[in-house]
Amino acid sequence: MASTCCARACRRERLGSVDVVRAYKRLGHVERAFRGLKAVDLAVRPIHHHTEPRVRAHVFLCLLAYYVQWHLERAWASLLFRDEDRPELDDPVAPAERSAAALAKARTQRLPDGGPVHSFRTLLAELATLTRNRVVPVGGPDEAAFDITATPTTLQARALTLLGLTPSSV
Questions:
Q1: CA angle, corner 68, sides to 70 and 53, nearest 5?
Q2: Sign of CA dihedral 13, 18, 23, 27
Q3: What's the rounded Cα separation, in Å, for the pair 133 and 12?
Q4: What does each C-alpha distance from 146 to 31, 35, 132, 142, 168 come to in angstroms?
Q5: What percent of the chain has pLDDT over 70?
Q6: Could you give the CA distance from residue 165 to residue 149 in angstroms, rounded to a whole number?
Q7: Which residues pair with 116 in a beta bridge?
């Protein structure tokens, strides 16, 4: 009885041929994500754990880091070499097409405002220069200490705004 119920559920959830092709093409995103986890983007080095809970925790943290990166890349798409308005094709077998804006960014290496287009890595490097310093006056009481946040560059301010943040909030 249970196998009959399961078989009916499987029939209801079957993908059509167009959806199968689209799902297959999305495997490339998964492969790119794991390649980025291990090498370029997140540089997760091999760590040899000896217990199952530690292995699970390590994998969870790696996937969480990738999830954060994925959201950052989507929020910062207008600053990155990324297609913001990629058209969805009716035919999943047809070659992917880039939007005119993405082609212009790739061709000129510039954003519409004239600023440089960044990769995820170079944008993070740019944001890493934004600092907050704790100033402690010599000989003064601890209550006299205060923080100074550096004035962000135009690019840093724009990246923070795209995340709904301000320099003082980070």
A1: 120
A2: positive
A3: 59
A4: 46, 43, 10, 9, 13
A5: 85
A6: 14
A7: 110
46 vs 70 pLDDT, higher one: 70
Written as one letter, the residue type at 150 is A
**Do 127 and 159 meet the contact criterion of CB atoms below 8 Å apart?**
yes
Residues 50-68: tens digit of each pLDDT? 888 888 888 888 888 888 8
At a CB cut-off of 8 Å and minimum separation 6, what does 134 contact? 145, 146, 147
Q: Is the confidence at residue 8, as pLDDT, over 80?
A: no
pLDDT band at 160 (very low <50, low <70, confident <90, very high): very high
**How much is the pTM?**
0.71
C-alpha closest to that of 158 among 65, 80, 67 = 80
Tokens of 165: 């943040």
Count Cβ atoms below 10 Å from residue 31 Cβ, excluding itself. 10
H or E stretch covering 96: none
Q: What's the rounded Cα separation, in Å, for the pair 63 and 33?
A: 9
DSSP-assigned letter for residue 7: H
